[in-house]
From TrEMBL:
The keyword 4Fe-4S does not apply. Keywords: Monooxygenase, Oxidoreductase. It comes from the Bacteria. Residues 286-350 form the FAD-binding domain. GO terms for molecular function: monooxygenase activity. It holds the Pfam family NAD_binding_8. InterPro entries: FAD-bd (IPR002938), FAD-dep_Monooxygenase_BioMet (IPR050493), FAD/NAD-bd_sf (IPR036188). This is Monooxygenase. SUPFAM superfamilies: FAD/NAD(P)-binding domain.
């Protein structure tokens, strides 16, 4: 039986482990934490991510856990429209938002016969053209035909196969929170059709999760500010956020007021520079592949990280579907890299353009940004800035 070891049980690793297991692989999933647990946030599933999930697990119940995302447009802090909301055109699923815990639950439910080993921190990765890939935590070593590096932005697997690619700060910090439905103030509920607001170096995105989202509802928000991660306590950071976003149109203030320090998930935003030179590294009867943030971590401006991870998993499943260990699987590992590299490089480029929009500060830069945004919407909806548009799962 073909064997795979997947390092990391985040969205990428869970999706890949389940997909390989359901295709007849014997899979071991390694996670350094003591239990598999989602951060208490939410995620936007763009059409590419939804298509990938649907192809990975048609019975995953994705539409049951995700609420359609309204297009709330883009505003300035004073409430003036930069981009007015438009109703969506085109066929196929629109974007949807889901509690990340629900996404993890659905992915865990799809793991089937995967052997899960938590509390296993991969410290040593063995690769080589002639040897089977292997991973060790210093106590035990696990070999497999295929080693999948899904261990996030600080990936140990990537460090072994693509050391040229390192995580660097993107010049932003981000704060996320989900305000549970029962705590959403009625003023915020009325005034939160969803949407984003752009200030000078600051951005606030609010997304209603709706009753559809496993009946839990609530509102998810993400604030971004130029600068590094803050060292203060969550309570102090919340106070800072309330100060920075004071005077912004509602419901921004109401949502920050309704947020508790324990809801807050602060982090410095980082990205990989450069991207790894490849995502597939042949070795022994198969080799090593990188997926998710381990392969292409980028700032969250386009909200594509998890969606690309699901694309990676769907592509990996397809390219290794009929590959037996040996030359076939080696070729599949190379093929995975050939397919995923250009796709993710394009999204990274689109994301950098969006970084410039979010980072704009100073009167002239803001005027130029606002003028550009006024003209950008039709193009944003078209292919140039919408990476979710044209991706379909490989057969
Ligand atoms: C503010 C913000 C908003 C975002 N919004 C969106 C969005 O709306 N839509 C979207 O698609 N994406 C979004 N993203 C991006 C998305 O969250 C990430 O791209 C995605 O979670 C990456 O998943 P992953 O499984 O690759 O990595 P991770 O989630 O980092 O998972 C890696 C796993 O590997 C484990 N691990 C790490 N090292 C080891 C080791 N040595 N041994 C064993 N296990 C290990 C970790 O414990 C972890 O469980 C957002 C990101 C941010 C910061």
């Amino acid at each position: 039986m073909r064997t795979a070891v997947v390092v990391g049980a985040g969205t990428a690793g869970l999706a890949a482990a389940g997909a390989l297991s359901r295709s007849g692989w014997r899979v071991t999933l390694l996670e350094r934490a003591e239990r598999i647990a989602a951060p208490p946030t939410a995620v936007v599933l763009w059409p590419n991510g939804l298509r990938a999930l649907q192809s990975l697990d048609p019975d995953g119940g994705w539409t049951a856990i995700a609420s359609p995302l309204p297009d709330g447009g883009v505003r300035r802090p004073d409430g003036q429209w930069l981009v007015t909301p438009r109703s969506r055109t085109g066929a196929g699923p629109g974007p949807a938002a889901a509690h990340l815990e629900d996404v993890y639950d659905a992915l865990v439910a799809g793991l089937g016969d995967v052997e899960i080993r938590t509390g296993f921190e991969a410290t040593t990765i063995r690769t080589g053209l002639r040897s089977r890939p292997a991973v060790s935590d210093g106590h035990s070593t696990i070999e497999a035909d295929l080693l999948v590096g899904a261990d996030g932005i600080d990936s140990r697997v990537r460090a072994a196969v693509a050391p040229e690619s390192v995580a660097v700060g993107s010049g932003f910090a981000a704060w996320q929170a989900v305000i549970p439905g029962f705590r959403v103030p009625s003023t915020a509920e009325d005034r939160c059709p969803g949407g984003e607001t752009l200030g000078a170096g600051y951005r606030f995105v609010a997304i209603p999760l709706g009753d559809h989202a496993a009946g839990r509802g609530g509102i998810y928000w993400v604030a971004t500010a130029a600068g590094a991660a803050r060292p203060e306590s969550a309570a102090t950071q919340l106070t800072l956020l309330r100060r920075w976003f004071a005077g912004w149109h509602e419901p921004v203030g109401a949502l920050l007021d309704a947020t508790r320090p324990e809801d807050l998930v602060p982090q410095g935003v980082r990205e990989l520079r450069p991207l790894p030179r490849a995502y597939g590294f042949p070795g022994g009867p198969g080799g090593v592949v990188l997926i998710g943030d381990a392969a292409h971590a980028m700032p969250h401006h386009l909200g594509q990280g998890a969606c690309l991870a699901f694309e990676d998993a769907a592509t990996l499943r397809a390219v290794v579907a009929d590959a037996e260990p040996g030359p076939d699987l080696v070729a599949a590992v190379e093929n995975y890299s050939r397919v995923r590299q250009p796709r993710t490089a394009t999204v990274v480029r689109q994301n950098r353009r969006m970084s410039a929009v979010v980072q704009a500060r100073g009167r002239l830069a803001l005027r130029a940004r606002d003028a550009a945004l006024n003209h950008m919407r039709p193009r944003m909806l078209a292919r140039s800035l919408d990476p979710s548009h044209d991706w379909t799962p490989p057969e």
